[in-house]
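REQUEST FORM: STRUCTURE PREDICTION
Request ID: SP-0412
Submitted by: Lab K.M.
Chain count: 1
Length (residues): 272
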Amino acid sequence: FRLALIQLHVSAVKSDNLQRACGLVREASAKGAKLVALPECFNSPYGTQYFKEYAEKIPGESTQKLSEVAKECSIYLIGGSIPEEDGGKLYNTCAVYGPDGALLAKHRKVHLFDINVPGKIQFKESETLSPGNSFSMFDTPYCKVGLGICYDMRFAEMAQIYSQKGCQLLIYPGAFNMTTGPAHWELLQRGRAVDNQLYVATVSPARDEKASYVAWGHSTVVNPWGEVIAKAGAEETVVYTDIDLKKLAEIRQQIPILSQKRCDLYGVEMKK
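STATUS: Completed
RESULT:
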């Protein structure tokens, strides 16, 4: 099946972001994509100073448009993420809609991006956001898909759980920056893919050098052999790739690590 990643140029005008995102979703559908994914914070600039101003309930304005365009195009739409307000708390949340427009999954970013690289970048999502507390998976006629958002990708245990639960594709909307992007963006994706013998796709906003937080871009798809099979540059674009589940089955048969794990010695488990 064909997967499309929309590397959207995100502006400060929410209505423009929504309109352009929906237009690119329609374009991807017209080119045969069955799963379409948007980037992290696709409806607002990324930054702790923006989350409260742009936050919405789910359902709300942005997710309603996602539901409508998913139904119109009869696709599975991974809605990147938006700042979500619920019960007085803010979350970084990805909503997924099916071909009938129904909400299939809602993933709240589990691991908050609190880092300090002296002289390069300091960022603390926990100043405004609360963490999610659950794994998020959804079924399609093609395969089962697991969700994470950006910093979630650094935690190998999360990907292992998804693999154990039968996921063959992991999708991470994310916005790595100009420090962590060149260092770890591709490395982490290849690691998660080869460790778990599945496909990994990441969807970044396009790079905006004038933004307060400059995203690395380079939305990517990695196959279960650890090979990069599709990759964007820094500009706004749509990345297409065909996901070959026969290749995944072949790799798992050739190097059967999933059945060779020593569960008598170690294990990773989902607690809730």
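NOTES: Residues 2-256 form a domain with the Nitrilase/N-carbamoyl-D-aminoacid amidohydrolase fold (CATH 3.60.110.10).
Reviewed by: T.R.
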